[in-house]
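Hi R.,

As promised, here are both runs. First protein below:
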Amino acid sequence: MLPHWSTFKLLGLKSSLVKCMPVSLYSTTEKGKGTLFKYQNNLPSLPVPSLDQTLTLYKRAIIPFYPLGREDTFYQNYCKVIDNFKEVEGPELQKRLSHFAEGKRNWLSTIWDNYAYLGYREPVSPFVSYFFSHKNLNTEIGKDQLMKSAALSHRVINFMSKIEHETLEPELIKGSPFCMESFKWMFNNCRVPGLPSDTTIKFSPQKNRFMIVISNGYFYKVYHHDLNTGERFSLGQLYASISAVHNNSHQKPRCSNPIGILTASNRDVWATNYKHLCDNPLNKISLEQIQSASFVLCLDDNFPTTIAEKSVDCWYGNGYNRWFDKPVQLFVAKNASSSFLGEHSRMDGTPTLRMNDWIIKQISKMSVTEFHDEKKTAPQYTELVFEVDPFIQSQIQKEKKAFKQVTESLSINVWQFHGFGKEEIKAYGMSPDAFVQMLIQLAYYKYTGTVRPTYESASTRMYFKGRTETCRSVSEESLQFVRDWENTSKSGAEKIASLRSAINSHVRYVKVASKGLGVDRHLLGLTKMLRDGEKIPDIFKNPMYTYSQHWFLSTSQLSSNEFNGYGWSPVVPEGFGLAYMINPHWLHVNITAFKNNPLGLNPDYMAFYLTESIQELKEILSKSVIRAKI
């Protein structure tokens, strides 16, 4: 998951620090706290890769994109440029980067947050945010909009409390701790539009014990702790408050000036409108209430039925019943279909995956008897008021049209294949993630007859404030695999051998990237060390440098049996957004693209070739005699 790289200037962007409101975040030193952040102080710092290692890996990664591979004259000439950079400009930029990294536990964090997210000016929805669609629950709670809304909110508040008191278990992957820093930014946080880049604001959870409920386009401040006693509200009390808000909002016609649509704007436009809104003291107060709220719950009036409809609903929805700048936003439709949308600037998908997976598992075990409210506390909520002047009215109408135009330019296909998943792949001694990456490569090759730059997110959370590094999925081995697979003269054994070689190559790259030693973040860091007026080195001006970072396929895996959807947008006009889940016995790929894709590519056709590819892989693998012992 990453923003539209085609809209960035690859060079010349000045990095600026992420601006955050000074506020005491959850501390790891307070007495009585749990173990959530127990490993933070001992996490290693993100390393600065060696120049030689990065350039060697880079030269290898771009080979598949030259028609003649290693023998291509253009490749050989570019290698000379790369080698010259290693001897001439590279050492000085590397020295500057190493100096920049001194005293920092993560030299990349502020650069990346601004370059990839806060400095990005296109609308966060649908272009940056990611979504999870929850599976349907065949229970009384799971079929009632308001009961499910209360249940979701109650369990989210429980999860929030675990973070606040640090009782949430820290994550260990194969015995190694992962950075839990991003959990601090999950609640009571908000992205704020600004020029030339946005900021993030973090508020005290103890001083802001409320959530925002958006219903029929109106905004309500709904308390989840009692204003008088400070006690957390019960499930029944939350249900009463949410029901009261729903009733109140629907006693009026749908809001004619839905402020939320402004958050779907181009960020420069939203920054201008935001400043205008804040010039009115009443509006400024309402905006601060939204920003400081724990999270947002949206009560929708639609009935999404198919998985594609559910996915679209949480990907961008109707636009007006939303606040796209919050990192945790939940939606519940009239038919109780529920989902989640995450603003991406301060956290990636793994923390919110954990939260959503946990709350759906919790809700599936709940009983309606838990909604009984013995205290009969009066609902505690207030409606937020916005004074909308003619200028903002015109901007709302303008953004409604712009949002409709943008979202109608996108298409989606939700591909699922049951009866073959993680366990079946492991039975053949293969990495499930690498297998699906090769499945995607094969389907794309069948569709287009070529391979193109492919991005996969590799987690670097083994380091302090680690987020992601790029895994370049296309390799010499993956290219050979797709060619061999489509070669009718190759035997099944030869095809499987080629598949294994491609998978092993991919696994090696993921391991390198997860250690923070990939190509892309290091090269980005080197470009950021260039000073104003300095000549841009030829390595960065070569067409292959730009092309190999033009992600025709943007992919990432987050898996949960509690979801029936997960995805985001394509990141370049010609590309696919391919979000995939690998569950024990089924696979899921959410395929998004622009309808006016310059290459004429269509998600429906990509889904067709995914099916053809998995059926062929499954058939030939089933005939192989060697299966791994599990």
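And here is the second one, sequence first, then its structure tokens:
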Amino acid sequence: MLLLLLGLGLASLLWWNYRHRLNWLLLPYYGDIPPLAMQGGDPYLRALMRTISASEANDPNPYTILYGGSHVADLSRHPNHCVPIVSGPNIGKCTTAAGRYQFLTSTWEEKANLYHPQPGELWLAPGYSFAPQYQDQVVYAWLSDRQSWGVDIPELLRQGELDRVLHLLSGTWTSLGYGIESNLITPSLKQIYQKMLTEEKQQP
């Protein structure tokens, strides 16, 4: 009887983990992808950023989302919650991916150190603010950095080289079509980008 109960308990846990991960992978494509919190900037890069987030953090509140679909309230710094990975090649590990662009803690600290507009308060509150506008600003500056990527991403986008850009970025954001975690949004990224670009070009 005890073994039966333990077996049922384990099965329930495995089903919960599977369903939790499945819900994350099958998040519906919201027709209205939230605008960026950041003001201004190149409409081509802004459209790319919204496209990345459509695949990586497809949620009405993307800035607060963790891997798996739960949310956090405190964005004074990166949440640094290591959430268990329940499927895919990294199953059994955990990930700290968080926010609109699913930054790992280590990646956020590295890129924020280069691009964050506000210095980190190392002795009071270690780390950099993870507020929505700063998530955007760090990614915008990173994507604009020719030395970081070896190419001029905004210029490639103007030339219509979206496939090349997505391929380049897929090593960082693995749901962009060439990585290890494509999802149901991945095949629609080109259409999403065009929709986002149209919207961004209409902004004053």
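A quick note on the second one: Residues 2-201 form a domain with the Lysozyme fold (CATH 1.10.530.10). Let me know what you think.

Best,
J.
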